[in-house]
Write a structure and sequence with these properties.
Layout (H helix, E strand, L loop, with lengths): L2 E7 L6 H16 L3 E7 L6 H11 L3 E3 L7 H12 L4 E5 L7 H9 L6 E5 L6 E3 L4 H18 L10 E5 H10 L7 H11 L4 E5 L1 E3 L8 H18 L7 H15 L2
Parallel strand pairs: 1-2, 1-4, 2-3, 5-8, 6-9
Antiparallel strand pairs: 4-7, 5-7
Helix pairs in contact: 1-2, 5-8, 6-7
Length: about 260
């Protein structure tokens, strides 16, 4: 099989069906039986799994994994990738911000690189509508920390469209340390450590209504996740648990 696309989905009963149908039509017409779309509902309390299975009944390329529980986006991607059969294994967000054409651009340009990722911040990329200043500032600060802490000279580690060669993603999955906010960084860091080349290309990204992310809490969680991840791969690994306990206490105090 040529291509496997994993779609992690948390409470996406509204946005998933049109996105999934668009992907199924586009990729089945281009790749036929050589493509699979693997939907992994994660800790949903809505009809995400049900609507995904309804699409699967009409589109044989669509597969739906049983709800794995509260494993986070990263855990859902890992489960989907572990069951993937394609020579190229990628993942994309369920909200439809990355169109089928934009994801296929990764496939077309993958070449010999071990990993190719979509970037919203490279010259030539297009984002619509333009993100608020607060989100842009948080994104650029996060990117600066990624470069400083992990040496990943990339513009956008967080865009939800990435593609790996099978021989690259398999050892990456075995060595991942996190499944939460820093999951994408961990994947790319592991790929870099294996010696795989990572290519970044500009993409077309359309923000979709219905996002549940709140900028300030998300930014704090992402920065904390980066620090924890850096410690995980350092001699300070033993400090992760005490740090997590302190942070939890601080958050509990602030919520009073």
């Amino acid at each position: 099989m040529k291509l496997s696309i994993v779609i992690p989905a948390h409470n996406e009963e509204q946005r998933l069906p049109p996105m999934l149908e668009a992907y199924a039509v586009y990729f089945s017409e281009k790749y036929g039986s050589e493509v699979e779309l693997i939907v992994v509902p994660n800790f949903c309390d809505d009809r995400t799994a049900e609507v995904a299975r309804a699409v699967a009944l009409r589109c044989p390329q669509v597969k739906v994994l049983d709800d794995p529980g509260k494993v986070g986006k990263g855990g859902a991607v890992m489960l989907g990738a572990q069951s993937a059969e394609g020579d190229l294994v990628g993942f994309v967000d369920a909200d439809g911000a990355t169109s089928p054409e934009a994801f296929d651009d990764l496939v077309e340009k993958s070449g010999p690189d071990g990993c190719i990722i979509a970037s919203r911040w490279m010259k030539g990329s297009k984002m619509s509508p333009k993100q608020p200043l607060s989100r842009r500032a948080a994104s650029r600060c996060f990117n600066g920390m990624v470069r400083l802490l992990f040496g990943l000279r990339l513009h956008d580690t967080q865009c939800g469209a990435k593609l790996f060669r099978r021989e690259v993603i398999q050892p990456v999955l075995r060595n991942l340390g996190v499944t939460c906010w820093a999951f994408d960084v961990d994947m790319l860091f592991q790929a870099q450590r294996t010696g795989a080349s990572i290519r970044e290309i500009p993409t077309v990204w359309n923000d979709k209504a219905g996002s549940k992310i709140k900028v300030v809490p998300a930014a704090v969680s992402m920065f904390v996740a980066l620090i924890r991840l850096r410690m995980f791969y350092s001699p300070l690994r033993f400090m992760i648990l005490p740090l997590s306990q302190v942070i939890a206490k601080v958050f509990r105090y602030e919520k009073r």
